[in-house]
Amino acid sequence: MKQVLYSLLALLFTPPILAADMPLNMTQGVTEISGKVFSLHMTILYICCAIGVVVFGVMIYSIINHRRSKGAVAANFHESTKVEIAWTVVPFVILIIMAIPATKTLIAMEDPSNADITIKVTGSQWKWHYSYFDHDIEFFSLLSTPREQIEGTEAKGENYLLEVDKPLVLPINKKIRFLMTSDDVIHSWWVPAFAVKKDANPGFINEAWTRIDKPGTYRGQCAELCGKDHGFMPIVVEALSEADFESWIQDQKAQASLAAAQAEAALSQTLSMEELMAQGEQIYMARCAACHQPNGAGLPGVFPSLIGSPIIKGPVSGHIDIVLNGKPGTAMQAFAKQLTAAEIAAVVTYERNAWGNDSGDAVQAVDVNSDGSAISVESNTEAPTRLPANLPETADVVPTVESAVAATAEKTVVLDDLTMEELMAMGEKVYLTSCVACHQASGTGLPGAFPSLVGSPVITGPVSDHLDIVINGKAGTAMQAFSAQLTPQQLAAVVTYERNAWGHNSGDAVQASDVDGHGK
Predict the structure, then answer these.
(1) Which of 120, 301, 361, 393 could be cross-linked to 131 through a Cys-Cys bond (beta carbons 3.0 to 4.6 Å apart)?
(2) Contacts of 415 (CB under 8 A, 6+ apart)
(3) Computed from CA positions of residues 509, 512, 517, 518, in that sequence, does the dihedral angle turn out positive or negative?
(4) Which residues contact 94 (CB under 8 A, 6 or more apart)?
(5) Interval 118-147: pLDDT, tens
């Protein structure tokens, strides 16, 4: 009995710092909330251990000292009011003692107010998309573990299946608000070091927050079974000092400008079939092989085969369109915001010529419209019938980014005005890609979180005000600026769609030329 008592005292008075070093215990994390969660965990653990020691101590003592061989006679506690009151009141008091700190911690975990930075986290099969509302930065984060390690032909790395090509970068000592949603099925964004684990549901927005205390790299995973590659959907967060984070922001903006210039230059380049196939294979293996398999055979009943597929064998324009915009109601997602025109051209070329398809089609970047629609391409020897906005009017290959920018500034091609039908069709695609997560497909929003667009004063008010809020966002809300994410044509189309959908019927047909001058 003395040993039991000593064990109980040792357990109750073990310093938490020693418990934190136990390899099977919960980690303390690097945020105030994770510290509270750890303290709550240890408090509950100690209470449960104390209860276990007392209960089993009494049981063992009774078994030894009140056994039949010693002549003990069992006492009769039948219908004992005192005993019944005791075993009701004591557990109730214990639960209250446990509930008070638990409630305080849960309330703190669910308070994302007064955030310094808001980031939308969108899950899709099988990657994460991050949008920084306050900085007009967005990117996809994909698993970067080499296929050779996954297939077992190489030794596993230190961070096997927990490494990505682009980590989420956050500043320390700032309150970060997360808006969680999904493009397809239910995912769950989980980083143990932050004590953040929140489901990302399609069509809904969940909120979470964190404030990181220490710089470093923190890893997590999708914690909801979301399909066959659920285990290949890691999360990596790099926490930087505030000064380093500001430097990273400026670097990202510079890279975005450079990437835009490079994409513009690529529109005037003509790659050989060999170059297209080599680039297309790399993109296919990184972005498409998870569903359609490296050999293009797909998974029968789940993901269609690309070998001899009607899409692959059909018109190039239809093939480009489904890669750009996806296919509603299926797992085929839109890659318009994930890949450049040159990358889409390369992967389409690869799919049309790999695995025995051998179409001979060599699709170029200029064949892919920057507004998210496909150009009718039947022969690569002919010029496309419609040029993307801001494309330099030259047939020469632009050798450098600088010369491409100069050529663009010197002379541009302006798109003709679109009809109402064309604007509505394009606007619906843009809305379902960029706006539906917050405002819903029906435009009704999420009461208390995101306003309804049906009958909204912004929608029914002046066109200029509507354009301004879409282009520049609205400070202090989750409405981000789309000036850096959408082309003038896309901005005009989505505003037209919102002003004429869901019974608005304003008749306003906004053109790309109407966007000029806003947001500058």
Answers:
(1) 120
(2) 386, 387, 389, 489, 512
(3) positive
(4) 47, 51
(5) 999 999 988 999 999 888 898 999 999 988
Instruction: For residues 273-294, give the mean pLDDT.
Output: 89
> pLDDT averaged over the chain?
82
Q: What is the pLDDT of residue 441?
A: 80
Q: Kindly state the DSSP code that residue 212 receives in the 8-state scheme.
A: B
Q: Which residues pair with 129 in a beta bridge?
A: 122, 140
**Hey, do 269-390 and 420-515 end up sharing a CATH topology, with the first three levels equal?**
yes
User: Which residue type occupies 129?
Assistant: H
Rounded-to-integer distance, Cα 499 and Cα 493, Å: 10
Tell me which fold the domain 117-240 belongs to.
Immunoglobulin-like (2.60.40)
Residue 372 has pLDDT above 50, yes or no: no
Query: From CA 131, how far away is CA 101, in angstroms rounded?
Result: 34
Residues 3/56, Cβ–Cβ less than 8 Å: no
List Cβ neighbours of 263 (8 Å cut-off, separation of 6 or more). Answer: 340, 341, 342, 365
Task: Identify the pLDDT of residue 416.
Answer: 63
- Looking at residue 345, its pLDDT comes to 92
Class of domain 269-390: mainly alpha
Domain ranges of the chain: 2-109, 117-240, 269-390, 420-515
The H or E element containing residue 208 is strand 206-210
Contacts of 3 (CB under 8 A, 6+ apart): none
**CA 122/CA 32 separation, integer angstroms:** 25
Its pTM surpasses 0.90: no
Report the distance separating Cα 293 and Cα 289, nearest Å.
4
* Domain 420-515, CATH number (from 2.40.40.10, 1.10.760.10, 2.120.10.30, 3.30.110.30): 1.10.760.10
SS (H, E, C) 324-393: HHCCCCCCCCCCCCCCCHHHHHHHHHHHHHCCCCCCCCCCCHHHECCCCCECCCCCCCCCCCCCCCCCCC
- What helix, strand, coil percent values describe the chain, rounded to 5? 45, 15, 45
Q: Are 317 and 376 in contact (CB under 8 A)?
A: yes
CB 393 within 8 A of CB 413: yes
Give 468-512 pLDDT, tens digit per residue: 898 888 877 778 888 877 888 889 999 999 999 999 999 999 998
Q: Helix/strand/coil (H, E, C) string of 275-294?
A: HHHHHHHHHHHHHCHHHHCC
Name the nearest CA neighbour of 212 among 197, 199, 195: 195
Question: Rounded to an integer, what distance in angstroms lies between the CA atom of residue 35 and that of residue 143?
Answer: 29
pLDDT band of 382, cuts 50, 70, 90: very low
